């Protein structure tokens, strides 16, 4: 059985390898089909993966060209009458949990977190699977930037104050608002909405919201971590809203900063992904009807 340390290190090594190659694995992690149901990776049950597992499966999907987004274990495939093809390589995902030593079973504070890795396969790696696990062969009519009105409504429903003008995109904690460049300055709607969701993700970190540390300056570890959280959260939100994610403003300096953090702390990417998941869930919970949907 692999140790916790090995699992953290394997995940971090995978992300570092992508960044060193100049690829951000959370950017536009889907191919031709952009239907909402097919973007976030799903389990055999239809439940969506979360946090770092989303990123790991996006990486694998890009590396091996999978268009389907359903993943399952070897045994699950067999339970559905399928068989993983000989020679296929699985993808690492993780399960979070805690355990309490026997001599402290009555003390909740003694619970120790653990991270257990296991292997899943994309349905494209499995033979004889039921048709329901695959998308229809025909593509839906193409719209290069689908559901833009949905994004506008999503941001409006959060209650964030957003103003357009100038040349800079930023969240300003001192006055609790988001400043965006004039719309005409963006190369495309894809760029605009990726940037907007990134800044709304920063907005979620205010003390009276999710209370993250927003005090870091560029070049500091705290700044790099918060930028990574916002970038991952924006990628999750773009995927869930059915739009491409391409902020374009993360230069080589950002990549170098992230690499320094990830190499210094092998838990950093997992922590950032978990915080990004919390951001996405917090902003989604602000939408009309969200409470009823989660009951």
Automatic annotation (TrEMBL):
GO molecular function: single-stranded DNA binding
Domain Polyvalent protein metallopeptidase, residue spans: 150-275
Domain N-terminal stretches: 5-121
Short name of any one Pfam family annotated for the protein: MPTase-PolyVal
Protein known as: Antirestriction protein
